[in-house]
Design goal:
This protein is an all-alpha fold. Helices cover 69% and strands 2% of the residues. The chain folds into two domains: 244 residues, Cytochrome Bc1 Complex, Chain C (Up-down Bundle), CATH 1.20.810; 68 residues, no CATH class.
Length: 345
């Protein structure tokens, strides 16, 4: 009787419709998703949740103030029990999150799943990719060792050269024209507050559009078979997440995170280079004049966001020739060349 009374009390205060989860769990998916390579759509979300969990633990000890930031990271890494492990998981998951988002975008691009009526799904997904880069940039800056401090200085200097929005963004990030004590606190607020909030909102919109439009069928695939999201596809996604978690744990145990020298604003290191996911942009900016590099970078990001409409225009221009696919593949290959080139230099 008590159980029935508690159930009635909860149902009156939480009037959730019965079987509200039944429809999404029983959603029918195209049969091509049974192949393991298609089970990576939820992996970026898994890494994001891992980032949030470990990030919250790190905030208990991190101090976002220049005189204490480096020492707090050193204490987390070498003084607090399992602090090195949590920090290592946070670092490794951030890099794999970038890889997972990028691979998901490549898969959507290769199958042209961005075509109407799914253009906005692509836009939200591409925006999540840019926010992932924002996560990486702001998080790397918080370490406050020599390389992270000067990489932040150089990165924000380049932001200042962006057309129209450069100077306002510089003041927004730095809290002034130069790197100062406010810069670290602002980057910290972006890292733990602004960017995660935007990320959650965009993920929600991305998933909502996928639920409304369904998963895009493969081009030219005449098969009509389907299977349910739960338990078949959900178990595949969980298995991929568990394998990724195991790989992260093994990597962190074998390669625990280290720490460079304390940041010194008066001593510029001889070699300043960003993290590997910024290598293509870094190499490109070294190859061409700064303004040319920045304008072309803005054009690249804009074309990435507007790609569904650009591809549709190219298709109308040359029907059946898949000009968009050829241009896109050339862009991906060129980006990969720049990344490898910078990594080997």
């Amino acid at each position: 009787m008590k159980a029935m009374g508690l159930q009635r009390w909860l149902s009156e205060r939480l009037p959730i419709p019965p079987h509200w989860l039944e429809k999404p769990l029983k959603e029918e998916l195209p049969v091509h998703l049974k192949t393991w390579v298609w089970a990576f759509g939820g992996t970026p979300l898994f890494f994001f949740v891992l980032q949030v969990a470990t990030g919250i633990l790190l905030t208990f000890y991190y101090v976002p103030y220049p005189p204490h930031a480096y020492e707090s990271v050193r204490q987390i890494t070498f003084g607090i029990r399992f602090g090195w492990f949590i920090r290592g998981i946070h670092q490794a998951a951030s890099q794999l999150m970038f890889v997972a988002v990028l691979l998901h975008m490549i898969r959507v691009f290769a199958t042209r799943a961005y075509r109407g009526p799914r253009e906005l799904t692509w836009v939200f997904g591409a925006s999540l990719f840019l926010l992932t880069l924002g996560f990486a940039f702001t998080g790397y800056s918080l370490v406050y060792d020599q390389l992270s401090y000067w990489a932040t200085t150089v990165g924000t200097n380049m932001i200042a050269e962006l057309p129209l929005i450069g100077k306002p963004m510089l003041y927004l990030l730095r809290g002034g024209p130069d790197v100062n004590p406010n810069t670290l606190s602002r980057l910290y607020n972006f890292h733990i507050g602004v960017i995660p909030t935007l990320f959650v909102l965009l993920v929600g919109m991305h998933i909502l559009l996928i639920r409304l439009h369904g998963v895009a069928p493969l081009e030219g695939d005449a098969r009509k078979e389907t299977y349910r999201f739960f338990p078949d596809h959900a178990l595949r996604e969980i298995a991929v997440g568990l394998v990724a978690l195991l790989a992260i744990v093994v990597y962190v145990i074998l390669h625990p995170p280290g720490l460079g020298e304390r940041a010194d604003p008066n001593l510029t290191p001889p070699h300043i280079r960003p993290e590997w996911y910024f290598f293509p942009s870094y190499r490109w900016l070294k190859m061409v004049p700064l303004q040319v590099g920045l304008w072309t970078s803005v054009a690249f990001v804009t074309s990435m966001l507007l790609w569904p409409w650009i591809d549709a225009a190219l298709e109308r221009l040359a029907p059946g020739r898949k000009l968009g696919m050829m241009i896109g593949v050339a862009g991906w290959v060129f980006t990969l060349i720049l990344l490898v080139w910078e990594a080997m230099s």
